[in-house]
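A note on notation is needed here, since sequence and fold are reported together in a single record. The reader may check this reading against the record printed directly beneath this paragraph.
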Amino acid sequence: MEDLTAPAAAGMTRRNFLQKSALAGAGLVLGAPSILRATQGPGAPSNLINVGFIGCGKQQEVLFNAMVNIPGLHYSAVCDIMKDRVGGAYGRISSRFGYKPNRYLDAGEMLEKEKDLDAVIVTTPDFWHSPHTVMSLQAGKNVYCEKMMSNTLDGARAMVRAMDETGKLCQIGHQRRSNPRYIYTLQQLINGHKICGRIINANAQWNRAVSASRDIVVPARILPDAATLLKYGYGRGGVDLTTEELQRRFLNWRLYKDLSGGPISDLGAHQIDIFNWFLGGPPKSVIASGGCDYFKDREHFDNVMCIFDYATPQGGARAFYQVLTTTSAGGGYFETFMGTEGTIQISERSAFTKIYREPGSAPSWDSLVQQNWLRRAAATAAPADSGGAVASYASAAPEGFQLPGELNQPPHQPHLANFFAAIRGDAKLNCDAREALESEAPIYWVNPAAEKNETIFLTEEHLRTT
């Protein structure tokens, strides 16, 4: 079998790569100027997949909008404890496709009655991910569950066990694992052409403005009543809560320690997963700091910064991550891998994706540009030399490059398409529950490291998946 990580000089061409690699599963157009352009194939498969949704909030809408152009799907059922959300999901399906999915307020009832479901999409709050995934797997359904896998390690491990015991498929929603931009960057630029040289440092961030981090508020009349919210776990361990308090916990579950992992799992999980994927395994330790510095009435930190220490085959490396909920400044959200010969800043958004060649590094990247593996970025003027002692410490400006194309579909679509292709037996899951937990496990230790203000050394017990 041809090694897809081998450089082009050893016989791999851009066309070979697209034909043989995982990107082919994303439907890349070989003849297009953009080698990262993805499209859907013609016609719908004959083997229709019946899909049900558990959880019909905003994330369900995001995934549904990414699924509508994937052929061969029939949306059979929708479920949520909030009637208004069930109605919204029902309306999106019926208006788009002209048929009416069955509606449910209880996941157990849906799984009991919908015998013909092939796949369940779980987009409930984190503390329900594990119960809903496990019960769906045990009912004989394949599952696509949003990340984080669970609000607890034990919950995540239960999902892996259920996947193993039932033999059903369980894909976790780390959608970058199926993104052509990320696959191409890792397989060809980092591992194949080794444009970074030895990677010694990595940085990533997700900075969110205060305006996007405030409490979610909706009219109380459309929310579930107190009895329903208590039945479905929104209480607090026997503490008497008012209906208003229960409804705040329902809408803003990400703020509470018994319902979620906070910003480090809500936002950071996507990007710390990329650290572990690109660096080839989990870190050996984590140190962190965080605080409730603006939102004083929240249980989780409103900002967290952490450093992971890695032992890669090439040597030691460190990765810094920050998640902020009080500012959107600093260039948005991205992951950066910095090496001795080059740096790649990558994001789901092409505007945040940039590549730099270190001054004086060898060999030149001219051949990569000529073969369209890379494109040169527009030249920028070098800063004026201020002279004196300070200027003598400055490095020459690095050359700027860009990836040669765009993804022309919603960022979740390739990962969902991979899931449905795996159900048909046409692909292998890009991020099943075990692989996801191997990458997610270190994330569960960030908040404890910040709370204790100490380094946590990650042992096999910290990182085990079952």
Residues 1-11, 24-43 have pLDDT under 50 and may be disordered. Residues 83-97 form the longest helix (15 residues).
